[in-house]
Amino acid sequence: KQASSPKKGGSLWRPKTGERVLDCRKLPAIFQVLERRRRASLKTGRRDYVFTDSLGKTLSQDWLHKRVFKPTLRKLGIAHRGQNDGMRDTFITLSLSAGEDPGWVAKFCGTSERMIWEHYRAYLPDQADGSRVSAALLSVTRLLPETTENEDNPAKTGT
What we know:
Elements: E1 3-4, E2 12-13, H1 28-43, H2 61-76, H3 83-97, H4 102-109, H5 113-120, H6 131-141, H7 149-152, H8 154-157
Antiparallel strand pairs: 1-2
């Protein structure tokens, strides 16, 4: 319900996207990671935060940014960018590239589908060959009754 930010002096504040409930039942890997983190934080005797150091204190985003994130970008030859932007962009592009529904990705990230479409369209799998709509139309037309030659062409019947 609250987060801490080095930009705000480490003080607690409400995230800008607000509180939301997400259905993660189809994502067992998330729960496995969080359970491992929970057990690790319990060993320190503190229960306040999920992601902690070995003493149970919150991880310093500033330290992570300087010691982990920036060196990783340098090694990969990627231009420097904000840590949160980079992680968010990575999650969104990986999700879309894997074929996740853009609506789900937008909801999960607390953003709009319009933003996903405008900024991440290039990462959606390229399936724009018309085959899906063609298959849908064929399945619908199979349900229609057979017509006579004149019914198919209104010009021949004079209507």
